[in-house]
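Hey all, quick one. A colleague (J.T.) asked me to put the pyridoxal-5'-phosphate job into the tracker so the inputs and the structure tokens live in one place instead of scattered across chat threads. No bug as far as I know, just bookkeeping. Sequence used:
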Amino acid sequence: MIDLRSDTITKPSEDMRKAMYNAEVGDDVFKEDPTVNKLEEYAAELLGKESALFVTSGVMGNQICLNLLTEPGDEVICEIDSHIFNYESGSPAKLSGIQLNPIEGKFGVFTAEQAESKIRPIDAYYMPRTKVIEVENTHNRAGGTIWPIEKILSLKEVVIKYDLKYHLDGARIWNACLATGISAAEYASHFDTISCCLSKGLGAPVGSLIAGNNGMIKEAYRIRKSWGGGMRQAGVLAAAGLFALKNNFSRLIEDHINAKYLAEEIAAISSVQINLETVQTNIVMFKPIKMDAGEVIEQAKQNGLLISTVKPGWIRAVTHLDVTKDDIKKAAQILKKVLK
Ligand SMILES: Cc1ncc(COP(=O)(O)O)c(C=O)c1O
């Protein structure tokens, strides 16, 4: 089976497993796990922030950051297809008592003007208080699209003008960095908080990181613990994360090349809608015109290819470190066969 459902399905490589096996560990709830401490220091430096914290998942990372930046009753502006709005089980409301105010962007990206029009008047006591603007880079549901740095900067002017906070869901920030040449620290420098994943394109089995100033991360320790996220000998997982950051970043280029190749092959099939402009990193989104998406997914499976759907009618294929160029060529052939 060639599995292109997600870049989260990768399995730790032999070398990564060796690093995990050899990890020095301690009780991280006492802050005594040397490997977790090393990962957090390394991540803080990489992201150019005072401190970083290892958390169980991307969802936990985003939710801790939103909790840090808001009070119950506050509102967060985000994109309509964003992960926090669609795929985090309603946790902004459940965990922080906040609501989201989504904007329909283009390819996952909205403008400063759109955001400004959503900000609640400061004296409107009967409205929620706008507190945070959130950006997802790369944008998952839009197809791995990158937020242009100019857009991040113009949105930041709105954040400053209205004294808001700025959060980056950088689950796949590494893909954006690789594609643009902009460092993670440069991206993160524009935001109060950032969360980023080790378990997507970088190939670690578990874990995400959040970063911010010392005060925020100290408070984030408390929130993580209160939500049951205090891990003990987590060094075995942190070792995989460190290995992933040090060894699997530059190879993301292969995933991007494979995604582009696959997208171009799919674009050559007449019965498919695909916008090559959105294929900027490791995600390919396409819509069969003559067949139901579910039927395409089923037939592809019968032919040895796993793909998935993330929005009605659309199919998603994601490249990652457990698929080769040959696998991608085979995947393209299977899709041609099924979609004809
Ligand atoms: C953009 C984005 N943010 C957050 C997450 C959540 O990550 P996790 O599955 O580790 O909770 C994902 C997962 O796919 C994602 O794509």
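Adding what we noticed when we looked at it: The chain has two domains: 14-247, 251-339. The mean pLDDT is 98.
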